[in-house]
Write a structure and sequence with these properties.
The complex is a heterodimer. Chain A is an alpha/beta fold. Chain A is built from 14 helices and 14 strands. In chain A, the strands form two sheets. In chain A, strands 7, 8, 9, 10, 11, 12, 13 and 14 form an eight-stranded mixed β-sheet that branches. A six-stranded mixed β-sheet of chain A has the order 2-3-1-4-5-6. In chain A, α7 links the parallel β7 and β8. Chain A is globular and about 65 Å long. Chain B is mainly alpha-helical. Chain B contains 15 helices and two strands. Chain B has one domain. The radius of gyration of chain B is 20 Å and the shape is globular. Classes of the chains: A alpha/beta, B mainly alpha.
C-alpha cells in the first residue's frame, strides 16, 4: 500500500512538475490529503484500550466524511505495542517516512512521554487525549504537544477532594498503583484534602498487576479512615473493586476513585459490586445531556458497548483539532498558526455537553463532574453526575507560577499539608 | 566492499531508512557481544539487555538529570556496563548450559526491577528523557556515519578477539571444559574476561543507543530486549559473529516492514523464527556457509578423482 501510494504521489508530482512548472507549491500542497498518524497499542498489556482509541478516533472522522478544511483526511494507524521504544520507532516512521502532518494518540504515559520528547526536536504537532502526565503541560511543557480532549492527572482528583470534605469526610486512606499516574492523581487529592482540613491516614502503593489485594485492604481497614480513595486502571481496578466488596468494606467505608477506576473499560463487565463509587471526570456517560446521549447511542449502536474514556477522549480530541483545521482552511503546514489556532479554539458542541477551552499551557479547562456509578435502564452500570465544579484548570485554585515551583508529585512528595 | 556499500547508503536511501540502518548497526554490536559468549564460549546470556540498558541509563542520567557532558556520560555508561558485567560474570561463570541462562536471566530481572522501582533516579515506569544529540551529528546521515565509524573498528576488534589464541581457548572451553582444565587453562578466568569484554561491547551499544533513541525506560533493560538481541545473533548464526549484522537487519527491517501492513506483526515475526529454527538452525550466515562449503566440496571432487 505504501509503495503504491509512493508511486502514485511520485507520478503525480513528476507530472505536475513537468506539466506546470510554474504552478505554486502551496496550491499542490492544499490538494493533498492531510495525513494524521494515530498511535494506539494494538498489542501488549493495554491492547483493549488501544482498540477503543482507534474506534473513537475513526468514528469522528467517519462522521466528518473523512474531510476537514476542504481537504481529505488520511489516517495512518500504527501499533505502539504498549512499549515506549516501539512507540518511538513508530513515531519516527510516521513523521519521517509517512510524512504525517500531525500525530495523535498513545495510551500509556511512558509511551507518550517518549514520543513527546521526540517531537520536541522536530516540531510535529502531537495531540494526547489520554496521556495524563502532569508535567507535559506544566513544568516540562512542549509547545507542539497539546492535550486535546485529555486532562492532566491531578486535575480531577482535587475537586473530588473538595467534594469529599463537603460531605464531612475528614480521614482518607488511599490505595493506588505504584507509578507516576497514580502518584499524581493521589498527590492532587492529598494536597487539596489536607489543605482543606482533612488528614491522610494512610497511603498504600501496590505494584501494577496485583492479583491479591488482601494485604492492602487489611491495612486500609486498620487505619480507621472514614473514606477511601482508589486509583487503579484496567484489570487492577476490576480486582480492587471486587475484593473491596467481598471483604465487606463496601458497606463500611465509602469508596471514592479516580476517573479511570470506574471507567467503562473497567465496569462494563461488572455487577452490583461497583455500584455507588464516586469519581470525578470531565465526562459522564450517564449525563442527561443531549450531546452526550447522542454520542453514547451512536457509539453503542456501532460497537455494541458504552464508550470508555479512551474512545470518548479521542473522539473529542479529533473534533477539537478538526474545528481548528477548519478555521485555518486546512493549512496545517504552517505549524505555528495551526498550533496557535488549536489553542484558541473553543469547543462548545462536543459530547461533553459543556463548552471547553484551553488554558495557556495546552491543557483544557473543564466543567468537572462528580459522578456516581449507577444502573441504567438496560441494567448496565454507568457513571451519572451528582455534582459539579465549573471551570477547573490543571492548577485548581493555585497560581500557575507558584504552583509549578513545588516539586512534581511522586511517591515521596504528595503535597500533604503538615499540621 | 560491504563497507563501501554501507558508506554510500545515505546518498541513496531516504532519511527514515537511514535511521533504521543506524539502528541495525547499533543492535548488531549488542548481538555480537552476546555471540562472543554464546557462539565461542558456549554460554548463552539472557542478561545482556540489562547491561546494555544500564549503559543507556547512566549516560542519560549523567547528561540529562545531572546536566553533564554527553560524551563523559556515555564513557561512564560504558564503564558501568563493564563493571556490571564483571558482577554478572563473577556470579555466573561457574555455571553452564541452562543454569547459566537462568542465572543471567535472573540477574537481568534484578536490574529491570531496580530501574522500575527506584523512581527517584530512574524515573520509574516513565523512564528518562535525554538532551538530544550534539549538533554535528544531529541529522540522520551524519549520525549514521558517526555510528559506522565506531562500529567498523569495534567489529574488527571483536573479530580479532574471537580469532586470537584467547578466542581459540574459549572455543576449547565450549567444546570440552574438562579437557581445557586438564591442559592447564584457567577456565573461570577466561570466561570472566570474556564476559567482561562482552559487557564492554554491550555497553558501547547502549551508549550509541542513547544517541539514537534519546530516551530510556525499563523496557530498554527488560527481558524482551535480551531475548530480541539473542534472537538476532541466532538468526544470523551463533558462532559466526558477523551473522549478527544479518540477524539484526532481518529482525529490525521485518519489524518495520510488517508492522506497516498488519497489527499482527509479532505473530509474523514469531512464525519467521519458527521457520528459521526448522530450516536453518545454524542461522542465516551459518546455513549459507554450509551450503557454500558443500558446493565447494562437490565441485572440487571431480578434480580429486581426475587427478
Amino acid at each position: 500500500m505504501d509503495r503504491r501510494r509512493f508511486l502514485k504521489t511520485t507520478g503525480l508530482t513528476l507530472a505536475a512538475g513537468t506539466g506546470v512548472l510554474s504552478a505554486p507549491f502551496v496550491a499542490r500542497a492544499q490538494a493533498a490529503p492531510i495525513r494524521i498518524g494515530l498511535m494506539a497499542p494494538q498489542t501488549g498489556v493495554v491492547a483493549a484500550g488501544g482498540r477503543e482509541i482507534i474506534d473513537g478516533f475513526s468514528l469522528f472522522w467517519e462522521s466528518a466524511g473523512n474531510q476537514v478544511g476542504g481537504r481529505k483526511v488520511e489516517i495512518i494507524v500504527e501499533d505502539d505495542a504498549s512499549n515506549p521504544d516501539t512507540a518511538l520507532q513508530k513515531a519516527r516512521r510516521l513523521v519521517e517516512q509517512a510524512k504525517v502532518d500531525m500525530l495523535f494518540g498513545n495510551l500509556l504515559a511512558n509511551t507518550g512521554l517518549a514520543v513527546a520528547n521526540y517531537v520536541k526536536g522536530n516540531g510535529t504537532p502531537y495531540f494526547i487525549p489520554v496521556i495524563a502526565a502532569d508535567d507535559l503541560t506544566q513544568r516540562a511543557r512542549i509547545k507542539n504537544v497539546i492535550r486535546a480532549g485529555g486532562y492532566s492527572a491531578s486535575q480531577f482528583s482535587r475537586p473530588l477532594a473538595d467534594w469529599a470534605l463537603k460531605q464531612g469526610y475528614r480521614k482518607v486512606a488511599m490505595i493506588s498503583q505504584d507509578y507516576t499516574f497514580g502518584h499524581e492523581q493521589c498527590g492532587g487529592f492529598a494536597q487539596a484534602f489536607t489543605e482543606g482540613g482533612g488528614t491522610v491516614v494512610g497511603q498504600f502503593w501496590h505494584p501494577l498487576n496485583t492479583s491479591d489485594f488482601s494485604p492492602y485492604l487489611g491495612q486500609v481497614a486498620g487505619v480507621k479512615a472514614d473514606v477511601v480513595f482508589a486509583m487503579q486502571t484496567g484489570a487492577d481496578a476490576t480486582r480492587l473493586i471486587q475484593q473491596y466488596a467481598s471483604f465487606g468494606l463496601k458497606d463500611q467505608i465509602p469508596l471514592l476513585g479516580s476517573q479511570n477506576a470506574t471507567d467503562q473499560s473497567v465496569i462494563r463487565t461488572m455487577g452490583a459490586e461497583c455500584e455507588g463509587i464516586v469519581t470525578s471526570a470531565h465526562f459522564a456517560e450517564g449525563a442527561d445531556l443531549p450531546a452526550t446521549q447522542t454520542f453514547v447511542k451512536t457509539y453503542s449502536d456501532k460497537f455494541s458497548k458504552i464508550p470508555s474514556l479512551y474512545a470518548f477522549s479521542h473522539y473529542v480530541g479529533a473534533m477539537w483539532v478538526a474545528k481548528a483545521i477548519n478555521a485555518i482552511n486546512g493549512k496545517v503546514e504552517d505549524r505555528d498558526v495551526f498550533l496557535d489556532t488549536v489553542l484558541k479554539t473553543d469547543l462548545p458542541d462536543s459530547p461533553l455537553g459543556k463548552p471547553v477551552r484551553f488554558d495557556d499551557y495546552g491543557n483544557p479547562v473543564y466543567d468537572v463532574v462528580i459522578r456516581k456509578t449507577m444502573k441504567n435502564k438496560d441494567g448496565k452500570f454507568w457513571n451519572v453526575p451528582i455534582g459539579g465544579y465549573p471551570q477547573v484548570s490543571q492548577f485548581w485554585k493555585y497560581d500557575p507560577a507558584t504552583y509549578m515551583k513545588q516539586p512534581p508529585y511522586s511517591r515521596d512528595f504528595q503535597g500533604i499539608k503538615k499540621t | 566492499m560491504v563497507l563501501l556499500a554501507l558508506a554510500v547508503l545515505p546518498a541513496v536511501l531516504p532519511s527514515y531508512q537511514v535511521s533504521v540502518v543506524t539502528q541495525v548497526l547499533i543492535f548488531s554490536v549488542l548481538a555480537m557481544s552476546i555471540d562472543i559468549l554464546a557462539g565461542f564460549a558456549g554460554r548463552t546470556s539472557l542478561g545482556h539487555g540489562a547491561i546494555f540498558g544500564v549503559s543507556s541509563y547512566v549516560a542519560i542520567y549523567w547528561s540529562s538529570t545531572l546536566g553533564g557532558d554527553i560524551w563523559i556520560g556515555i564513557a561512564l555508561g560504558i564503564l558501568a556496563a563493564t563493571a556490571l558485567a564483571g558482577v554478572f560474570a563473577a556470579l555466573a561463570i561457574r555455571t553452564s548450559g541452562v543454569y547459566f541462562l537462568l542465572l543471567t536471566l535472573a540477574l537481568g530481572m534484578i536490574v529491570w526491577g531496580v530501574c522500575l522501582r527506584w523512581t527517584a533516579v530512574t524515573g520509574g515506569e516513565n523512564g528518562l528523557r535525554g538532551v538530544g544529540r550534539p549538533a554535528f551529528i544531529a541529522d540522520h546521515a551524519s549520525f549514521y556515519y558517526a555510528v559506522l565509524i565506531i562500529v567498523a573498528p569495534l567489529t574488527w576488534l571483536m573479530w580479532r578477539l574471537v580469532h586470537s589464541p584467547f578466542g581459540l581457548t574459549l572455543r576449547g572451553i565450549r567444546d570440552s571444559e574438562s579437557r581445557m582444565r586438564s591442559l592447564g587453562y584457567n577456565v573461570p578466568l577466561h570466561l570472566f574476561v570474556a564476559f567482561v569484554l562482552s559487557g564492554f561491547f554491550a555497553g558501547v551499544a547502549g551508549g550509541l543507543y542513547v544517541l539514537f533513541n534519546n530516551f530510556v525506560s525499563p523496557s530498554t533493560v527488560q527481558l524482551s530486549q535480551s531475548v530480541s538481541a539473542l534472537l538476532m545473533a541466532i538468526t544470523g548464526g551463533v558462532g559466526t559473529l558477523l551473522g549478527s549484522f544479518v540477524g539484526a537487519a532481518a529482525i529490525i527491517v521485518l519489524e518495520n516492514a510488517v508492522s506497516a501492513y498488519t497489527a499482527r506483526w509479532p505473530s509474523v515475526l514469531g512464525i519467521a523464527f519458527v521457520l528459521i529454527m526448522i530450516f536453518a538452525p545454524e542461522g542465516v550466515v551459518g546455513r549459507a556457509r554450509l551450503l557454500l562449503a558443500r558446493r565447494r566440496s562437490r565441485s572440487s571432487k571431480p578434480d580429486h578423482s581426475g587427478g
